[in-house]
Amino acid sequence: MRSQSTNHLINYILHLADDSLILGHRNSEWCGHGPVLEQDIAITNISLDLIGQGRNFYQYAAKLTNESTPDPSFAATEDTLAYLRDIRQFKNCLLVEQPNGDWAQTILRQFLFSAYQFYLYQQLQNSNDETLAAIAEKSLKEVTYHLRWSSEWVIRLGDGTSESHQRMLNAIDELWVYTGELLIAASYELRAMSTQQGVDLTILKPKWEEKVKDIFVEATLPWPGERFQQIGGKEGKHSEHLGYILAELQYMQRAYPGCEW
Amino acid sequence: MITREIDKKTIYSYLEQVQDPEVPALNVIDMGIVRDVLLHDDGCLEIIITPTYSGCPAMDVISMNIRILLSTIGFKKIEITQVLSPPWTTDWMSEEGKRKLRNYGIAPPNPKQQVCSDKLFAPNEAVQCPHCDSWHTHRVSEFGSTPCKSLYVCDDCKEPFDYFKCH
Lengths: 261, 167
Ligand SMILES: [Zn+2]
Fold this sequence. Notes:
The complex is a heterodimer. By secondary structure, chain A is mainly alpha-helical. Helix content of chain A is 66%, strand content 0%.
């Protein structure tokens, strides 16, 4: 019987993994389609980092799953967790599954998420779970690059031409509704926080807001302030977009179970 | 025949034969990704490695190549463990490794600088051209052909080159 305390931790780790995997997958859709070669390479490098971080989390979630429910007929692996769970079992936030849109929308999505992930990993380094702390410490170095790169692009586009500015405004209108969820704790996040394995999102919120405000000011973009917020992704209630992502992501393993490169 | 007397130094010298598949000029010791070698009482040989970047696709190949090499030499029980903390840094690259990189045409990482900070629009690092030794170079892209590199161009000899960026 799996204990309640392991269960919440596994859910927490899957949530972190799913965020990274889904955003990594979204960004990878730019491969070969970037506006210029250097930025095509940049966004796909960021994909690689995110998918790598996701793998580290999935491997750990698989290990805990197997330890708590030793079922020899079905051992969890990073692959079964990424490829064989269904949409309602995915715990990523709604922001990361949103379509790429134009370059402005992709940039803004990356910036809003990287700012969140930067402070998240900063805190998670202090987790009393050694593996989570180690993954956070490793990933933070990469996310520092992502945050800097996406911040520069938000400023470049926001404070660029009237067209790039307008596109950033459109992107804000499209994505702002999904930002609240990043900092509203799901049940397993509250549990993980109370056991000091996870982070306290109320500490993250002012840091995230300050960072986004600073960059928006420099980018001459208005602070959107309080708006209606859509939530549910972290509890498995997703927008229609995730189904299409999983259809593509999971196709090979569903059609040819266990296939390898 | 392998005996228990075999020491760490010998294992390290074996591991020098395992190249990084993405930067074939370097072996895993030059890269600083082998963190420890443990000989357990039950005869198991454990190699502890650390990834350069979380998503580095070379890690799986490197683990496999280490395993193949050691079993060819005659080791029966081999364990390869990946650790993440403390995270790999270019400071762990050996001086020999930096020299090999340069000869291969890739500018080696500078000693630790401020590139890993979140400071915006920071000036490019001064990087020496591996072809003509000029310092008159500029960065084309922070991201390059692999996660560990960025792209530079030399303003003197006009050649593009990869810079193994500080991490
Ligand atoms: Zn030159």
